[in-house]
Amino acid sequence: MDNPNNDSSGISSIQLESASNRKPSPLRKMVAVASIAAGIQFGWALQLSLLTPYIQLLGVPHKWAANIWLCGPISGMIIQPIVGYYSDRLRSRFGRRRPFIFFGAIAVAIAVFLIGYAADLGHSLGDDLKKKTRPKAVVIFVFGFWILDVANNMLQGPCRAFIGDLAAEDHKRMRTGNALFSFFMAVGNVLGYAAGSYRKLFMMFPFTKTEACNEFCANLKTCFFIAIFLLIVLSAFALLYVEDIPLPSLESKSQTQTQTQTEPEQQVSCSGEILGAFNGLQKPMWMLMLVTAINWVAWFPFFLFDTDWMGHEVYGGNPGDDAYSRGVRAGAMGLMINAVVLALMSLAVEPLGRFVGGAKRLWGIVNIILAVGLAMTIVITKAAQHERRVSDGDTPSAGIKAASLVFFAVLGIPLAINFSVPFALASIYSSATGAGQGLSLGVLNIAVVVPQMIVSALSGPWDSLFGGGNLPAFVVGVVAAVISGVLAIIVLPTPKPTDVAKASFAGGFH
After folding, report:
1. Which among 311, 323, 298 is positioned nearest to 415, based on CA atoms?
2. Angle separating helix axes 171-197 and 27-34, nearest 10 degrees
3. What's the 3-state SS for 224-284?
4. How far is residue 358's CA from residue 363's CA, in Å, rounded to a whole number?
5. What is the mean pLDDT of residues 297-307?
6. Where do the DSSP E strands lie in 268-363?
7. Which parts of 310-436 fold into alpha helices (H)?
8. Distance CA 318, CA 469 (A)
9. CA angle 68–150–111, rounded 5-degree value
10. Per-residue pLDDT tens over the stretch 464-494
11. Residue 194 to residues 42, 261, 323, 326, 330: CA-CA distances in angstroms?
């Protein structure tokens, strides 16, 4: 940016981060803020495991189901940078981050109510349950889904930035805070996937099963009730317990440091600051964003279709029948195992990086593991199809089920690296571009969400072109994983030891 000292409030993003001379906050307060990630990720786990099957239950064809997921990356690309920008500058007696977290939690509660009750609301508005497609329910679902993704992005960025504020530029404390955030993300994943895999969960709230909402739908409602409760409790505790220093007190300190400067000559808008952040990126950061984007082309088919693949290809069912429902629950169980492996591997990222010779080499290696894991879906699918042709008994067999769960477990290894190393490398590569904690995370997120938009838009036509199913998208993932693995090793610069010591490890989805 031409004049990084100027913005709409007279303080640049980088001044906002350096204006406070506070000492790092106690670890217990960072734990309180990081724990919100468990509530956020509980909801994400339900989205990833249950919502693709649910939207097909409402009558949306498989080839169009992925388009619903476009709202996630679009809201991530737009909302996170905007929320990050304004949460860096908000003038409120409640602080910079807490108002966004508060309203984000309320929006999540509203969104999951709309999603869970989409079938019932659609029926009350005139949907015919005898027809395959329920158009009014689909509209309500999509509306709630968009609100949910927007709200999650309102929550995630300020929570991470809040941890940065509490660290007060202490890099060691920053790494600790972000490790805690990743840990609670894993906890939320385990709880969410466990809830999604339990068939009789709806018995906790029997009223959730209605004429328009079968057991699968009722389980989804119950899961969302639990998600609302968990998120509200964790958010309320953090917001009441942890002090968020209001911006005016930071501004007064900044003004004492800049009193000899001239008055601001121009205002820098949110879009101007974002463009300024991009203009300040050096070649290593651009290369990192390229590798990250290709890497997410590999990952997103898994997030979109993992449980649908289990229900359709492995168990041989169709949305609404018993075989498909059993497959979806088995997929949720696999995702729970995946989350456990992810949590354990998250603790081993730094020692593994040292063992293999650096973070970028570790990332390259695990992307090859990702490619092998995605290729397993082809072998498992063909074996399951062969079993159904030659067997009259219950399918899939124990061997096919075990192989499927191994697939989910194996992918937990590269996923742990993917949720930490790219963000650590970004911390190392990026220089001072005038971006605050919130804005920096929002800009980096663009390299994650753009490939998600591409995959969401193209995976349906890919599947139709090759006869339906999920394998075409997984094959694209295999190719992308190999390419990103090779590029990670070849094109990314090797970080200097002095830079690594300053890096802050962060990670997450969207």
Report:
1. 298
2. 40
3. HHHHHHHHHHHHHHHHHHCCCCCHHHHHHHHHHHCCCCCCCCCCCCHHHHHHHHHHCCCHH
4. 9
5. 88
6. none
7. 322-346, 349-356, 359-390, 398-418, 421-429
8. 11
9. 75
10. 666 667 888 899 999 999 999 999 999 888 7
11. 10, 57, 19, 14, 10
Q: Look at phi and psi of residue 508 and say left if phi exceeds 0, alpha if psi is from -120 to 50, else beta.
A: left
Q: Which residue has the tokens 């059993």?
A: 326
Name which of 125-129, 155-159, 243-247, 269-273 the model is least confident about.
269-273
Distance CA(150)–CA(77), nearest Å, equals 10
Question: Contact 163/34 with Cβ under 8 angstroms?
Answer: yes
Contact assessment for residue 439 and residue 84, using Cβ atoms and an 8 Å cutoff: yes
269: Cβ contacts below 8 Å, ≥ 6 apart:
8
pTM over 0.85, yes/no: no
C-alpha distances out from residue 371 to 186, 247, 320, 481, Å: 22, 46, 31, 5
Residue 440's pLDDT band (boundaries 50, 70, 90)? low
Tell me which residue of 187, 268, 177, 198 sits closest to 231, measured CA to CA: 187
Which of these, 110, 62, 79, lies nearest to 304 by C-alpha position? 62
Q: Token digits for 388?
A: 């159904």
The token pair that represents 180 in the structure block: 């805690």
Q: Is 436 left (phi over 0), alpha (psi -120 to 50) or beta?
A: beta
> CA nearest 374: which of 305, 461, 456?
305
Task: In whole angstroms, give the CA distance from residue 42 to residue 344.
Answer: 18
User: How many CB atoms are closer than 10 A to CB 170?
Assistant: 15
Residue among 182, 187, 161, 26 nearest 104 (CA): 161
Q: What's the pLDDT score for residue 193?
A: 85
